Amino acid sequence: MSCNPPLTQDFSRAEAQGSLQVRTNQWLRVDQVSGNVTYRNLYNYTNRAARVGDLVQTVSDEISTGSNSSAVLSVDTAIGSIYIAENTTIKIRSFQIAPDNGRITNLFVPRGKARLQIRKFTNRGSQLNIQTPSGISGVRGTEYIVITKPNGNMTVTTLKGSVATTAQNLTELVNGGFQNLTVLGKPPSRPVPIVEDASLSYVIDRQATGTGRSIVLVGYTNPFNLIKIDGIERDLDSNGKFSLQLPAPSSLSVKVKVETPQGKVQVYEIPIL
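and the corresponding structure tokens:
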């Protein structure tokens, strides 16, 4: 049932404070890098390859991964780890100290996929919040996967514990074994059981017009999945539908890669001509 945000109520307050926040001894540390991983800070124009041991600790610090690349970050005081998949950016929004000395970490994931393994916090005021363009996920101890789609939609897949997803002033609790979808500009959906389904159905619409030939590929898969067509990630709507107009003449086939949040992959070679 929807309710007022139980975990993320301090996030907007932290954002509003902006530069007035006191510097705290909080950070994310780069523990592993594989492939093309970049560290950036927009304030001092730093832009270089990330290195093991780097501390991501000031507002606008970010780590980004390229294709076929990944990174692992650890959270200060050893509360857990964040596993960053390819083509993902994670940025520091703010750090805070709660009245009970708990630590509040606010991150932003504008694109891509991150898997979090966070132990239970000892301080009631401690929080770890991840904002995406469409909403916020907040935890005090859990294992879950958050994905930001190219269109800004957010999916949350909770493996253990509980995650609060908040958007449009409404919150849904996503318990272990469930997942939900937050569409940009809308409240979070009700949680549904996790289904590791990488199946794909499709139709090819070929039309002849006065100016030539039109080929449109329309496909359907689980809306929580990631879709790549010939290596380029594509959007899914809330029902798992995608549509792609192909050039005419087109290649003989297209390759569609379907990946579930937990990493199950199925590749489809779809004949076009």
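(Above: one complete record from the training split.) Residues 250 and 272 are 8 Å apart (CA to CA).
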